[in-house]
Amino acid sequence: MPSPKEVYGSLAVLLTYLAGFVYLLWAVAPAAWLDKAGWTWYPAREWAVVVPCWLMVVVLLAYWSYAGLTVHLTPAFSSLALITDTADTASSASTSTDRYYHKFASPTAVPEAVDLPIDLVNRVLYPPRPRPAPTPTHTRPAHQPHA
């Protein structure tokens, strides 16, 4: 016995195909054929073009609205909310003098799920590199007296 989800899904697919077929029949069939088939009332043919165009515009506006809302809700680059927020899970040992991640040095220890400090993340992602000594780009020739 099929589950209700399968029955409703199959019914939705069949009704969608039926609605699409009826829409295409109404949009392209001559009015005489529809009258002969007993279909006496139907909307004006211009709606066959207007409704799909309107739906495409609605979909585009939905995408643009979602993108605009995302940009609007993103904090500014200078905001501290990019570093921490109200839902952060700071370590319980973060107030002590010893860093909390030192107590998990054992290979069998599983660290607690906490937000990592930004200085630690930066040190791991961007380790300090030795800088090469600057080289002169242009050397001035020694002053030569005129002979």
From TrEMBL:
Decide whether keyword Protein transport is in the record. no
> For the PIG-P domain, which residue ranges apply?
5-126
Compartments, record wording: Membrane
Q: Name one GO cellular component term.
A: endoplasmic reticulum
The membrane-spanning stretches of this chain are 7-27, 47-66
UniProt xrefs under Pfam families: PIG-P (PF08510)
Biological process according to GO: GPI anchor biosynthetic process
Q: How does it sit in the membrane?
A: Multi-pass membrane protein
Write the record's keywords in alphabetical order, separated by commas.
Answer: Membrane, Transmembrane, Transmembrane helix
Q: Does the keyword rRNA processing apply?
A: no
Q: What is the protein name stated in its UniProt record? A: PIG-P domain-containing protein
| Source species | Vanrija humicola (Yeast)
